[in-house]
Design a protein that fits this description.
This is Tryptophan--tRNA ligase. It catalyses: tRNA(Trp) + L-tryptophan + ATP = L-tryptophyl-tRNA(Trp) + AMP + diphosphate + H(+). InterPro entries: aa-tRNA-synth_I_CS (IPR001412), aa-tRNA-synth_Ic (IPR002305), Rossmann-like_a/b/a_fold (IPR014729), Trp-tRNA-ligase (IPR002306), Trp-tRNA-ligase_bac-type (IPR024109), Trp-tRNA_synthetase (IPR050203). The protein is mainly alpha-helical. The strands form two sheets. Strands 1-2-3 form a three-stranded parallel β-sheet. Bound molecules: tryptophanyl-5'AMP.
Length: 335
């Protein structure tokens, strides 16, 4: 089976509906066909301001949501980035073949520093895409399932793989970006021209997987809709309704066309009421399962220890190859 790898940051107390529908649902569906490796990039989460008291907890909550959302630890490898030191070690080597100008052109870094100013940004944030490249290249995966917003980072990983191979000899697999069709991008409920994100202007724009069901339902019902009354899909003219249709379609597995046909002659309100119900129905079992997992942190940590061990067996072999190729003196221990 071909290998896949992906991760989601533990940067909030819950994943949001965009992470769930745009990423996790796909990850789950690919577990049988591929040898999947999923991890929680906690080292990426310290590149911005954060509270150390929250991080470990958020990491466990993120893992619990992966599993509650359908990641099967018997089929797939699941681990936490900081448990596998090879990520940081390979990142250093890759930093040394990344151009300063090349890293400066990453749009996510530019966007973030445009708001805060570069004096408030860390070197870690600057080097973040290189760490992400290390995350990927260590496992020599065929593909990396991510949303459109990660495309440029994937492109850097591909460039670094090619550059390293060219300079030091065939070492890395050049990974493919596995990006779902347009349908999988979820927008902010209050501002349907911006992607749903934890840094949303208003909490009403974002549904968290662990939101109280009443809150989640209310957010759907108060979502911004568009002029007119007719329900049909048009991202340009009807971004609000189109976003609700996308959410409906991804949650229910029905096509957008068939949903539109069902709501012929009905009003926006009808769609919202039904969608609110569907969201609550889908989130409830995930929330219950996540809570069960979080009630037994020792068991969760045992699962993660097993995952880290599986991951390290792959990562350490790649890193040993890299260290050898770049000319580091072998340690007695590795001989
Ligand atoms: P992150 O944590 O921002 O997002 C995790 C995944 O969720 C997708 N996503 C969305 N999809 C649809 N609609 C949305 N509104 C939406 N918001 C987020 C993202 O595209 C992503 O697939 N740098 C990465 C984490 C990372 C990583 C890696 C990923 C670190 N190392 C190695 C893959 C491989 C990030 O910050 O994703």
């Amino acid at each position: 089976r071909r290998r896949l790898l992906s991760g989601m940051q533990p940067s909030a107390d819950s994943l949001h509906l965009g992470n769930y529908l745009g990423a996790l649902v796909n990850w789950v569906s690919m577990q049988d066909e591929y040898e999947a490796i999923y991890f929680v990039p906690d080292m990426h989460a310290i590149t911005v301001q954060y509270d150390p008291a929250d991080l470990a907890n958020r990491t466990r909550i993120t893992v619990a949501q992966y599993i509650a959302g359908g990641i099967d630890v018997e089929k797939s490898t699941l681990f936490v980035q900081s448990h596998v030191p090879e990520h940081a070690e390979l990142a250093w080597v890759l930093n040394c073949i990344t151009g300063f100008g090349e890293a400066s052109r990453m749009t996510q870094f530019k966007d973030k520093t445009a708001k805060q100013g570069s004096d408030n940004a860390s070197v870690g944030l600057f080097a973040y895409p290189v760490l992400m490249a290390a995350d990927i290249l260590l496992y020599r995966p065929y593909g990396v399932p991510v949303g459109e917003d990660q495309r440029q980072h994937l492109e850097l990983a591909r460039n670094l793989a090619q550059r390293f191979n060219h300079r030091f000899g065939e070492t890395f697999v050049v990974p493919e970006a596995v990006i779902p069709a347009e349908g999988a991008k979820i927008y902010d409920l209050q501002n349907p021209n911006a992607k749903m994100s934890k840094s949303a202007d208003s909490p009403a724009g974002l549904i968290n997987i662990l939101d109280n069901p009443k809150t989640a339902a209310k957010k759907i019902k108060s979502a911004v809709t568009d002029d007119g009354t007719e329900i049909h899909f048009d991202r340009e003219a009807k971004p609000g309704i189109s976003n609700l249709l996308t959410i409906y379609s991804t949650l229910s597995g029905k096509s957008i066309d068939s949903i539109v046909a069902d709501y012929q002659g009905k009003m926006y309100g009808h769609l919202k009421v039904d969608l609110a119900e569907l969201v609550v129905e889908r989130l409830a079992p995930i929330q219950a399962r996540a809570q069960e997992l979080l009630d037994d942190p020792a068991e969760l940590d045992r699962l993660l220890a097993r995952g880290a061990e599986k991951a390290r067996s792959i990562a350490s072999a790649t890193l040993a190859d890299v260290y050898d190729k770049v000319g580091f003196l072998p340690t007695g221990a590795r001989r």
